[in-house]
Amino acid sequence: MTLLCRLEDIPEGGARGVLPNARGRDGVVLLRRGGRVYAYVNNCPHYDRAPLGWRKDAFLNGDGTRILCAAHGALFRIEDGVCEIGPCLGQALTPVPVRIEGGAVWLDAPP
Amino acid sequence: MRIIGPDELIFGVDNIEACRAFLSDYGLSESAPDCFEALDRTAVILRDRNDPALPPPLPTATRLRETIWGVEDQATLDAIAAELSKDREVTVDADGRLHTVDDGGFRIGFQVTRRIVLDLPPERINSPGAAPGRAPNEIGANEDAPARPRTLSHIVFFVPDMDRMANFYIDRLGFVVTDKFTNTGPFLRPQANDDHHVLFMIQTPEYMQGLEHLAFHMQGPTELMLAGSRMVKKGYESFWGPGRHKFGSNWFWYFNSPLGTHVEYDADMDKHDGDWTLREVPMSKEAAQMFLFENVAKWAPGGPPPGKG
After folding, report:
1. What is d(CA B58, CA B159) in angstroms, rounded to the nearest whole number?
2. Site from A72, A84, A88 to mutate, B interface, most B CB atoms within 10 angstroms
3. Which residues of B touch A74 (CB under 8 A)?
């Protein structure tokens, strides 16, 4: 298992990018809601090389209720990654299996 | 029609603080509340998405509400009003600006341009066999140089009906096609601007309709690299670039943005006049760029590897 971050590193209701590649781009987006952490590959279904955020750890719309793709404004549901509006309508973000253990978030398998 | 280019892009957003920070860091100046200007006063304007003064949004994800085109003079405004009033409603606001809808369904406006004529130095380079661009002892690499967008260069739309959209700008507003990607869209310039393009469009399904990107011209390739590097250093997400396009020849560097559209730095775009014959090729990775780089962490050559010395 790979350690992604401490649970406390993700603000409640917020997001955090983890698992940076050699270029410094975070490979996985973590979202914390209540006792749960949702994890998705940091890539819009729109292109094969389209990171979602606009700045380090900035992945959410104004009121924090959706994941925003900062390429063209697509909005994705946090609980299942489904695109509700935008260029990827009807598609979904790729989920990443994670588990919370000992106050930390772990990658269950390679994304 | 003496149209110069896009003067203002008006956005309705739900994350105005993030957008303010982005546009400031990108290099625009907040000349009035939420009006972010380039050096020639062309601007991106932010409004809260629920602002009742805004035109209604498209039923898609795009946050762009209106594109205001700058024209040379009142006579041009009058001519546009007369032409477009033939088949659509054209309103005139208190400032004398026209507002209507184009044939792609995008809200557009026209005003006597807000831009000022710039008189600024170009990027100066030393090139063997040519007169030096810089005087002796004049240094080219200045990390502290300001890197300020000079003018709003161009906009690119996702459009459901490329031909209908393009023909509106060509037939009704006098835009000229400079080049074309077959089955993608044409590069268009208006009559009062010799830049290779101020408008480009990409054919997409209806649910994608919106602004694909906006771009500002920088002084030259070096300033573009400096500005983009500063954005990366501040944690912003590079999307595509730096590189150099083929059609238009402009250097480019695109970033994701909280405005829900790509925002590009560009530099050194081709100029064209009526003697130019348009080129047409299929859209491809090869056709889209001459070369493409990616920003990486800085490095310096040194001695032996760590632990061996």
Report:
1. 12
2. A72
3. 61
CA-wise closest residue to B247 among B288, B194, B202, B218:
B288
Q: What is the pLDDT of residues B154-169, one digit of tens each?
A: 999 999 999 999 999 9
List the one residue out of B245, B7, B226, B3 whose CA is nearest residue B116. B7
Q: Please name the residue of chain A whose CA is at the shortest distance from the CA of residue B59.
A: A85
Segment A42-70, tens digit of pLDDT: 999 877 789 999 999 999 999 999 999 99
Tell which wins on pLDDT, B10 or A34. Answer: B10
C-beta separation of A86 from B204 below 8 A: no
**Alpha-carbon separation of residue B96 from A56, B9, B81, B86, B270 (angstroms):** 42, 17, 11, 19, 33
The model carries a pTM of: 0.96
Among the partner residues A62, A72, A75, nearest to B261 by beta-carbon distance = A72
| Residue-level pLDDT at A25 | 87
Residues A68, B258: C-beta atoms closer than 8 Å? yes
A51 contacts B239? CB cut-off 8 A: yes
State the fold for domain B3-116+149-299.
2,3-Dihydroxybiphenyl 1,2-Dioxygenase; domain 1 (3.10.180)
pLDDT at residue A49, as a whole number: 81
| Residue in A55, A63, A72 nearest the CB of B260 | A72
Find residue B203's DSSP bridge partners.
B159
Shortest distance between the Cα of A87 and any Cα of chain B, in A, equals 5
Residue boundaries of the structural domains of chain B: 3-116+149-299
Q: How far apart are CA A87 and CA B158, in angstroms?
A: 10
